[in-house]
Amino acid sequence: MDFAAPVTLENDFVRLEPLALAHAEDLALATAGLEDRWYTSVPSAEGVPAEIARRRALHDAGAMNPFAIVRLDTGRAVGMTTFCDIDQANRTVEIGYTWLSPEVHGTAVNPSAKRLLLGHAFEQCDAIRVQFCTHFHNRQSRTAIERLGAKLDGILRNDRIGPDGAFRDTVVYSILPHEWPAVRNGLDARLDKRR
């Protein structure tokens, strides 16, 4: 299966739906409390529709597969995530451009979403590498990626220029197919504790 193919993924905690303007109202509410996160790109409440349109345009170009993250217990969208940096020919993909409402930080939402995306990438799309990238200063994201079991590939220094003109060092992690069973078991064990 193609990484960019529209798909809905669901487990006991979340549903990942193709991102659409219908999610805009929930996602605008979900941005509350994220305004001071200078090291990541979360849209403002007013900017959510434009960000949805931007991600949809990248999907139409085959460069991204964007999802809304919907909590099953409330039915509300609480964040966004994507398959990005899609290289179908080489069967590699990045999971990124993820942000979540502060109300779900530390809950089953993020590990559930990652479980679904990684399972789809390795088991349906036959990925040979799934990558994660984050800002060097985004300690919360780095901790979450490392807790998944992803391995540190390295740090790309001065990799990007931020909106404020500051240089970004990007920390790169990956999971390979032979590592997926252990990562899967770790995620399943974490989620079993939350049932």
UniProtKB/TrEMBL annotation:
Keywords: Acyltransferase, Transferase. Pfam families: Acetyltransf_3. Its EC number is 2.3.1.-. The gene is ydaF_1. The keyword Hydrolase does not apply. It comes from Microbacterium azadirachtae. Residues 14-179 form the N-acetyltransferase domain. Gene3D superfamilies: 3.40.630.30. One of its GO terms (molecular function) is acyltransferase activity, transferring groups other than amino-acyl groups. This is Putative ribosomal N-acetyltransferase YdaF.
